[in-house]
Amino acid sequence: MFVKLTTEDGVVGWGEQRALPSWSYETAETMAVVIERHLRPILLELTPFDVELFHQRAAKRLSPAVSNGFPFARAAVDVAMHDAAGKLAGVPVHALLGGKTTDEIALCSAIGVGDPETVREHAAQSADYAAYKVKIGGDPDADAAAIRTVAEVAGGKPIWLDANQSYRPSALRQLLDRTSDIRTIHCVEQPVPSTDTLAMQRLRGLIDLPIAIDEGSFSAQDLARVIRLDAADLVVVKICKSGGLRNALKTAQTALSGGLEILASGLTDCGIAFAAALHVFSQLELALPAELNGPELLADLYVEGLDITKAVATVPTAPGLGVQVDEERIRAESIDLAFH
User: Fold this and answer.
1) What is the reported pTM?
2) 104-324 fold
3) Which residues contact 238 (CB under 8 A, 6 or more apart)?
């Protein structure tokens, strides 16, 4: 979902987020309706610099309920606001956020669930990457084989396991017992359902491996509850689930206050959201290389201006997000969603 925001003076800001209902509840259709019918009226009364006011009014209009309401739709608009604000101010987005502390961000390869040969081929093709995130799907035999395959190729680089809520605590313990000799496994991400924070807490007493929370923590408030329950060692920060750039930084600051380490990730973001992530993560100390896999897995990012060399991304320094968007191609390949 691409968002184009134009100010009265003709300055354009671009935003983007991926609709992935298998991961979160928002679809392309709900995002389009929320932006057109509910967020657009709010924006017409504000400037691109009114980010906090935008989110305050959006939260009143779209009740956040337990966590934050429609964060993917709000994040797409939030990114566009930051892009426009940076261009109006003549500074890169990271300067609006307090400035970067690093010029480059090393990337982590994302290895999907698959048979050992497919996994081996992908890992070998990702030799330039500084770390490997290995997806595991709930089958201890298949997952142990995949982890061993990547470890053989990785050559000592850290391995980050991502279960995407696919395990029960007892089965995960079995998997980790089978792979306990692999000393490069750094952590396991969201092994149990996102709603079962107490199972995360219980797992910390069952296994020796650090546990990262992802789907179970969308906002800083979510993470505060997780910290109170001692249910995680690390948190995965994503702009999409946070609802925007500054909300992602609020989650990161909550993590640091609670003694948790930070992992950076996205949802196979295209070039606009990828650039936004670079600006956010350029000021954070990350536990592992960032799993921002858009450049690895997508054929086209629809932007120019990104500098990625041997799986290391340079933080853009031009005003706004620092990338030029191929609007003509986006429109040519767009799908019309009718509103009734």
Assistant:
1) 0.95
2) TIM Barrel (3.20.20)
3) 214, 248, 265, 266, 267
Query: In the chain, what are the domain boundaries?
Result: 2-96, 104-324
Q: How far is CA 271 from CA 141, 198, 277, in A?
A: 36, 37, 10
pLDDT digits (tens, 9 = 90+) for 135-191: 999 999 999 999 999 999 999 999 999 999 999 999 999 999 999 999 999 999 999
- Token pair for residue 306? 């990104």
DSSP for 90-140, written as a single string: TSBHHHHTT--S-SEEEBEEEE-S--HHHHHHHHHHTTT-SEEEEE--S-H
Transcribe 14-83 into DSSP letters: EEE----TTTSS--HHHHHHIIIIIIHHHHTTS-TT-HHHHHHHHHHHS--TTS-SSHHHHHHHHHHHHH
DSSP state for residue 258 in the 8-state scheme: T
Domain 2-96: state its class.
alpha beta
The angle subtended at Cα 333 by Cα 329 and Cα 336, nearest 5°, is: 130
